[in-house]
Amino acid sequence: MFYKILLSVFMVAFIAACSTTPKGTADSSGSGSSGTSSIDPSSGDAAILDDLINTPLGGPSSASASASIKPGSQEDLIVNVGDRVFFAYDSAELDADAQELLLYQATWFKEHDIQSITIEGHCDERGTREYNLALGEKRAQAVKNYLNGLAVFPVINTLSYGKERPAVVGSNEGAWSQNRRSVTKVN
Predict the structure, then answer these.
(1) Contact, 182 vs 84, CB < 8 A?
(2) What are the domain boundaries of the chain?
(3) Which CATH number is correct for 65-187, 2.40.30.160, 3.40.50.300, 3.30.1330.60, 3.50.50.60?
(4) Phi then psi dihedrals of residue 111, to 5 deg
(5) pLDDT given for residue 67 in this prediction
(6) Which residues on adjacent β-strands are paired with residue 34?
(7) I want to staple 127 with a disulfide (CB 3.0 to 4.6 A). Which of 1, 12, 107, 131 is the partner?
(8) DSSP string over 102-165
(9) pLDDT of 8
C-alpha cells in the first residue's frame, strides 16, 4: 500500500513538472519581460510580423542551410518542392495532392532546365515480389504520364523497386502508407 501511495505522489509530481508556463506569466529572471511576445498587426509591428512569418520553421540556421543547397539539385527539389508522391493501397492512381505536387515539380523542372529525371515506384511489404514490382512500375508510369501531360520535356526514366526499398520499416498502416510511393530523382 505504501508503494502505491509513493508511486501516485511521484506520478503527480512528474506530471506537474511537465506542465508548461501559461502565456503572460513573467519569466523567473526578474527582468520584467515576459517569456512570450505579442505582436499587434494593427500597430507598427507589421514588419516584425512579416519577418516571423517568412522565417523558416527551423529558424535562421535552416535558412542558411538551404542557402548552401545548389539550385537544381536533388536536395533543392526535396527542400523546395518535394520528391515523393503517395498512393492508396493497391493503386497507381494519382489523387489531388499528388497532382498538385507534380504540378510544382513540373514548374521546378522548367525553372531549373532539368534534362533527365528518374521516377522510382515503390510498394509496401504486402503482396508478392513480382506483383509489387509490377505495381511499382505502374506507379512510376502514372507519374511519368502525368508529367508528360504537363509538357515536361526532360528525359523521364522509370524504375520499380517494388517492396525492396521501404522508406519506413514496419508492419502497420503508418509504415505501409509511407512505402506506397514514387520518388523523383534528378539525374
Answers:
(1) yes
(2) 65-187
(3) 3.30.1330.60
(4) -60, -35
(5) 67
(6) 26
(7) 131
(8) HHHHHHHHHHTT--EEEEEEE--S-S-HHHHHHHHHHHHHHHHHHHHHTT--SEEEEEEEETSS
(9) 54
